[in-house]
């Protein structure tokens, strides 16, 4: 169950990053509220997953899902640039996540 909680926490991290961008510096009410609620839920699920997962593993996976997820959302939802260097960086993050999972 801890891995499911951790995965959901990572997905919620992507969602709060996206809605934070949409909140325009917390000047728009609905995206701001969604950001705060999903942020709290993400932290809560991360905390629950850490009851049985190693701190380093849980935190690394959580931030990695958030980083790569936000990268993908930025490209597809916000029209952010796709460059070789950005793709290579995301690939390295995913490789690190796989290695972290395999080592725990």
Whole-number mean pLDDT: 96
Biggest sheet descriptor:
none
Which regions contain 5 or more consecutive residues with pLDDT less than 50? none
Terminal Cα span: 15 Å
Tell me the structural class.
mainly alpha
Principal-axes geometry comes out as flat
Tally of discrete structural domains? 1
- Strand tally is 0
Tell me the strand percentage band: under 5%
Organism: Pandoraea oxalativorans
Family: Belongs to the drug/metabolite transporter (DMT) superfamily. Small multidrug resistance (SMR) (TC 2.A.7.1) family. Gdx/SugE subfamily.
Membrane topology: Multi-pass membrane protein
Protein name: Guanidinium exporter
Mind explaining what this structure looks like?
- With 104 residues, this protein is mainly alpha-helical.
- The protein is built from 4 helices and no strands.
- InterPro entries: EmrE-like, Small_drug/metabolite_transptr, Small_multidrug_res.
- It is a multi-pass membrane protein.
- It is found in: Cell membrane.
Topology at a glance:
Blueprint: H1 2-22, H2 29-49, H3 55-78, H4 84-102
Helix pairs in contact: 1-2, 1-3, 3-4
Structure characteristics:
mainly alpha, 4 helices, single chain
Write a concise synopsis of the structure shown:
With 104 residues, this protein is mainly alpha-helical.
